[in-house]
Protein 1
Amino acid sequence: MTTGRVALLGVPVASDTLADCADQIIGWARPTGQVTESRYVCATSVHGLVESWRDPAFRGILARAALVAPDGVPLVWLGRLKGKRQMTRVFGPDLMIEVCRRSTQSGNTVRHFFCGGAPGVAEELAGRLAARFPGLEVVGCAAPPFWDLAADELEAIANAIDRSGADIVWVGLGTPKQERFAAALRGRLDGKVLVTVGAAFDYHTGRLRRAPAVMQRAGLEWAYRLAQEPARLWRRYLTNNPLFVVLAATDLLGLAKFGEPSDA
């Protein structure tokens, strides 16, 4: 069970291992025969923390998450500098794989719903994971539109998820849309765990490639990703990365206090 957290730019981020985070998600998702409160988990990177600094309402969404996993190496570096020496990266695509693997173990069987990506991507992802993990129980897929959903559209998706009997709902819509989507769905679902995992849908269907291990360890995976999608990502990385360095320094040195999250 995850217990360790560290405040990064005012957001409580888990300082436990990938295995700990996966165990916690399985524990929340395992059917008990009783309707329980739904939760959402966010795998969050530099982009997510900078967005939370810009937008107190988005910071509130992260603050209310059951778990915020450190998706990026810079978050791990900052956490270690703040005293969490054993903190490790919990990359969204790796978290998905570990939860799927554990969910097929004896006594851990849970049902999965994949929500995100372009039309057809969720179905392809489900098929690949089912082939990789025999016994994986997939009960549904959806590709929500990329515009902000009206209340009736959210209700329709929530009803489809509830009818499927899913225990874990994987959400891959990109930050900050996926976190807002998960937070909006949370109150409409019975006893589900929603997990936002960014580009995991595209990584595990081969639409994106992982950076070489040396770039991952050096915190340069963003550069490899930028090379694959320069038109879409150049503004995000060239703006957010330098800003994160400044914000991290002020956080670490106590030169500024980060505002309270908003409930808006």
Protein 2
Amino acid sequence: MAFEYSGDGALDYFPCRYGKSKLLFRGPRRDLTRPFVAAMGGSETYGKFVLDPWPNLLEERLNFPVVNFGYLNAGIDVFSAEPQVADLSREAELSIVQLLGAPNMSNRFYAVHPRRNDRFLRASNLMRAVFNDVDFTEFNFTRHMLSTLQDYAPERYESLVAELRISWVARMKALLEKFEGRKILLWLTEYRAPLNRDPLGAEPLLVTAEMVNEIAPMADALVKVDPSVMARSAGTVGMSFAPLEEPAAQAMPGPLVHQEVAEALAPVVAKLL
């Protein structure tokens, strides 16, 4: 696998759709009439800024097709609302489900965009009552909104976090019930360099071990990947991005992290195939 930096900075992700789905996954489009493993997740699984994301590397190790159904900026809502996802899990020999952060999903406090789950749409009446001194019209993204509330009203912010965690567990259980066949949960922990860590916490945001343990029995296996110091410290080495995209690239896992994910998954997937 090659990790050269492309001269013009931009990668061609060959975005494609499957069936009647409105979601654009990373391509090139694969043949789903033959046996395959489904890799479902967010921007990390999609492999933003990375030439060979972990589904590609896993396929190479297994010598078995691994189809990338990672979706940019996805939260649980994207996969819960898309009927094609359940169909894909039914067709796959095995589904690998990346655990996504808790903020990017609609809940009792706020609503997010149905496909761009990182986009904050509106605050509920409950949210406006709890944070009655906050103007929510200034927020477009969930991270910005949560970061502001964490700094401005930390005690009230904790009540929001509690709601998000409860909602995450319930939503994940409902999602896993939709998936047919064998399932592996991928728990990719903090992958950013120490200097780039988010004040909101480690990835996946606001997800605790207790939450993961509650849903783990619904899958055939749980693979936790704690990226090494070397992989995290590599920063954007080997990533391809335009100059203005560097801050975004710094927030994404680099090639070494993707290698470690594939290495951790390979023996577990091989046993279940």
